[in-house]
Structure formats: structure tokens, C-alpha cells
Amino acid sequence: MVRRVSSARRSDAVVKIAIQGEPGSNSHMATEQMLGKVSLVPCALSVEVFEKLARTHEADAAVLPVENSLHGAVADHSDLILQHGVIIVAELSLRIRHALMAAPGVSLADVRSVLSHPVALSQCRRFFARHPRIQAVPFYDTAGAVKHLMATREKDAAAIAAPHAAHVYGADILARDLEDDPLNFTRFFLLARPEDAERLRPAGAAVDKMSLAFDLRHQPGSLVEALRRLAAEGADLTRIESRPVPGKPWEYIFFVDLRLPEPAAADRILATLRPVCAHVTELGRYAAHSLSSPQVN
User: Fold this and answer.
1) Separation CA 52–CA 35 (nearest Å)
2) CATH label, 209-286, candidates 3.30.70.260, 3.10.129.10, 1.10.10.10, 3.30.530.20
3) What pTM, to 2 d.p., does this model score?
4) For the site Essential for prephenate dehydratase activity, which positions are given (predicted)?
5) 183-227 residue pLDDT tens
6) CA distance linking residue 39 with residue 20, whole number of Å
7) Tens digits of per-residue pLDDT, 117-134?
């Protein structure tokens, strides 16, 4: 199950959470599943999320997508987590459902264009194949597309977004479950400033997962040796991704997620990696979220 931050652990009456996107987006849904009702700080861009969390402190925490089961990692989000020194305190895997919605009075027969985020549009190809008269129009955000249509009241346009967006903006749902693959999940991180990490960590969460970033010395077998040491500590490598180092052509940072055999293994893993890595940075320890949770059924 998803454990929420309990009210006893909050020092403020209202927790402000920065998200990329508008109310009604999948990020909004992930936030409510992890934290319950909070005050949203919507941001158009990822960099704005980190600006409001790490620099201006306009947000107490942030909820950000980091990986989709069909499209892979949101690459620059790993870079931004490392760059801004924030801490991962929880994760959530959210089942992604796409619905077609429009302003009241608009029917499917009226629709000639559909607005949504490019990734959402690409996950609904069968719908567009069945309706060749309808044009897919990229938009900056799924829920933002619904918000736009409700403001303009276009009579020949619709949007693809999570069903929750229809409730938020008062749109009518014309069709549900448009996604080509029902096993479509997006993984979200709950991020906090280091000084707030324990306050915002979900109550009762058992730490059994850790995220790290490390770069290696240029010598044969360095990555193999790092992975061997992780295996020797019983760590289950669930994700590995390499990202280029800005200003250092052809040098890379490895981002890894590990399932831990026990909480104490986290410190041993850091200690065993340091001798074979140029730098090791812990990004966070948290409870792994299982896809068997009730919210994905």
C-alpha cells in the first residue's frame, strides 16, 4: 500500500507541493495518493519545480515523474535531482489511464482535433487509427489541454488526459481507456530538501530501496567492478542509466536504483563503492512501491 505523510509529521497546516503540470494531471493524482489533500504549486517546466523547491522555497516538497514503463526514463529529471541536492523520500508507480474529454455539448462526432502531451498522444495510436479524421495536436500538458479547452469552449476539439482532469475542470468524458497498452505505469518521486526529508517521509515506511549517482575512473573493468560490489552486498539493481556530464564530453554519470536486502546495507554499499568510483552521491532511501498495490487494479 501507499503510506501517506501523517499529519503528526507535518510542521505546517498546509503542505505545498510543486508539480510539473496543471491540477488534474497525473502528477496531481500521484501527489494525492502519496500525501492526500495538499496545496499544489503548478509549474510549466521541470526546472521551475526545482527552482521553487530548492531555491525560493515556495514549495515544501515536489512530486515529479521519473520513469514510464513504456517510454523509459525522463532523463533530465535525474540530472536535476543530482544538481539541486534534493532528497528522494518516497516513490509511487501510478497506472496511467487516458480519457477523451471536451466541453459540455461537444460529441465525438464533432471532434476534429485532440490536444494532449506528445507522450500521451503517442500512447493512444489505435484511437487515432480508428478516427482518421481527427488530428493529434501536441500540447504542453494533458490537464493543461483540458483547462485550455474549457476556457476557449471550442466546439470541434477535445483533449486526452486522466479522467480526474474532467472532474477538476468540468469537462465531459467522451471515451475512456484510450491507452494502447493497459500495463502503462509512470513512476513518481516525492522530493524534499535535506532538512525536511524526515518530516515528509511517509509514516511507517520501511526503507528497502536506494537511489545513487556515481561516476567512474577511466580504467578497464571499472563499471564491472562497481556492479560486482553491489551484487556482493545483496543489492538488486532495478535500474541503471548513464547520463552525459555537462562540460566534459564523453564522460558519464551512472544513476542506479537498488533494492536493499536490509536497511543497514545502504551504508555498506556507499562504503564499498567509494574506493572504485570518482564520486558517489546518495539521492535517497525510501520504501519500494509495488505494482500489486490496490490503486493499479
Assistant:
1) 18
2) 3.30.70.260
3) 0.89
4) 186
5) 999 999 999 999 999 888 888 788 999 999 999 988 899 999 999
6) 14
7) 999 999 999 999 999 999
DSSP-derived 3-state class of residue 48? helix
Number of H helices, E strands in the chain: 10, 15
Active site residues: 186, 188
Q: In sequence order, what DSSP letters do the residues of 127-168 get, joined into one string? A: HHHH-TTSEEEE-S-HHHHHHHHHHHT-SSEEEEE-HHHHHH
Domain pair 7-96+184-202 / 99-175, same fold: yes
Which amino acid does the sequence have at 235?
A: A
* Angstrom distance (rounded) from CA 160 to CA 156: 14
Average pLDDT of the residues in 56-68: 96
Residue with cell 541503471: 240
Q: Which fold has domain 7-96+184-202?
A: D-Maltodextrin-Binding Protein; domain 2 (3.40.190)
Q: Which CATH class is domain 99-175?
A: alpha beta
CA 190 to chain centre: 8
Measuring CA to CA, how many Å separate 63 from each of 31, 152, 208, 211, 293? 6, 29, 20, 16, 19
Helix/strand/coil for 95 = strand
